histidine kinase
Amino acid sequence: VFKVYCEGLFDGNTKLGTIFVHRNITKEFEVDRIKSEFVSTVSHELRTPLASILGFTELMLNRELKLDRQKKYLSTIHNEAGRLTDLINDFLDIQRMESGKQEYEKKQLAMLLIIKKVIELQKVHSESHELSLEFLGGRDFVIGDAGKLEQALTNLIHNAIKYSPEGGRVGVVVFEKDGRVKIEIQDEGLGIPPEALDRLFEKFYRVDNSDRRSIGGTGLGLAIVKEIIHDHGGDISVKSQFGKGSTFTISLPVSDSQTV
Ligand code: ADP
């Protein structure tokens, strides 16, 4: 993005020429865009659970409620407070990771065990989708922080579910290739428009398409995944057919040694 300043050069009344100054303002433009995306995401995503918490606490304060109603409202308030906590943790995580202040407790891990744990947990939350795991062979040891790798995988599997219709299948495929543990997370959901692929891992970026406008989110999930995977010497890539589904592939170096 360029800003152009233009000024005429005169000697008395005689025009000698015109000076054009081009200033590259791509960076300022980008910072402004990220700021406004941040403000609109924060206000929307924080206000929704807060409105619900305020509404239900008011109901509880103003009425004589039966115990089962009280329990129902309290459980909604609890869930919404949990949502707020997750959001704030995501903001803090991305900030820590981007400034290089994230500390990792790395040791040798069997990735398959971590993936199985994440899938089991996701199954509890989303009975409406079919989750499967396939291991095609090879080594699955990596050096990493179990909690952070779980967080990355949870974000990817959660997205696969969130952007797929009910009853959709989500498959995780694991194999070793060229000294790397490859983990593919495949879904048959909404897919990603080709023009969005380049920006998908940017923080606060969300695909603005009519097919997903009602699905909430901050645009931080994939940015966090990318930071975690890069901090483990790994890569992440995505292939998608818009309207048909997506496959996210993580690749992490295989570890043979028992020492970090
Ligand atoms: P969020 O889900 O909070 O918007 P993410 O960073 O996790 O943020 O994802 C960024 C965008 O990428 C989402 O808004 C969504 O449109 C798109 N996306 C991510 N994963 C998938 C997927 N599995 N299928 C389709 N679209 C996806």
User: Anything to note?
Assistant: Residues 159-160, 163, 187, 189-192, 200, 205-207, 212, 217-223, 246 surround adenosine-5'-diphosphate (CB under 6 Å). The mean pLDDT is 91.
